[in-house]
# Entry
Amino acid sequence: MYGLTVIIIGAGIGGLTAGIALQQAGYSVQIFEKTQQLRPAGAGISLWSNGIKVLNRLGLGDQVAEIGGLMNRMEYRTHRDELLNGVPLQSLVEQVGQRPYPVARTDLQQMLLEAVGKEQVTLGATCVGVQQDEKSATAYFADGTTATGDLVIAADGIRSTIRDYVVGGSVTPRYAGYVNWNGLVEADLSFQDQNTWVIYVGEGKRASWMPVGGDRFYFFFGTRMPQGRNLYPDDLRQELGYYFQGWASPVQRLIQNLDPSQTNRLEIADLDPLDCWVRGRVVLLGDAAHASTPTLGQGGCQAMEDVEMLCRCLVTTNLSVEDALQRYEMARNARTASLTLKARNRTDTIYNKDPAQTQAWYEQLKQEKPEDVINAIAKIILGGPLG
# Structure
């Protein structure tokens, strides 16, 4: 289809990537973001090879390699610092045909914003609803303005304001049962190999860091916790010290060296898989359609895969916008539902929902062969639209 005008709600990873791809397809794109300043939720993101392949196709491969970390190895360690498993990643790169790149979210968002063009993004535009007819779809904003196009893409995240309209009912995110703290630290601390992603596990908790660009680590901590609980609301470092008391010295150094004012504290949620992503000329993309817990590291990658498939469906049909969107939904629904549930199960295992299952996982880590880990990651990556 030619000459479409596309309205995108949300300027996160999915919305900006969609804007780039659809511009390159020859479409007119307008992106609307409710915040006054682009501030991504979370400090970093692991972009596995399936997401990087989408960026490569958009001509952004060199840029993402520049801002990404050189991650050559994964290590699982006990909270007492005993090595459980070490996995060199070169065989993964050879198997799937692309290196993964952990990146700082701010760097990624800035890269995408420059590629789509800042003039295409309107900030401070809170979408409050959509309407459509046989020929167009219109987004309505809190300030009384509107934007009309051939289709509206809802890339407005897990708490999407458009999703209820699309599915025809109320959808509430599900609390996943744990809290995640994350941020960035300089890579000059006395950690292990600076090209290694280290994951400490024990007591149904995690502490981890991975390399990103600019000689930094992206770090995260996680522990099971009732929703709304916060023992030390005014002292994040004290809270981490409480939950990770007695953990290995590198974890303690990380807690002491992080900047509490630049550390996020997030109650993690996901969505039950949705049957419907499309209503006429209005379509869901990314977390608005299939938000998952971050335990597979596939959230951003799946939004990028959505973009690849949505663009493919639009440019390869001359039937109608509605037909293209339905084809997109059929192509993406089963894969994202499977990965969402896989991430949910992994979350429960990591964070002690069933302590016996968590302990069994620790034992499995001791026995698991590196090639089995690589093959499991490769299977996820190669299941995407770019192989």
Summary: The longest strand covers residues 174-186.
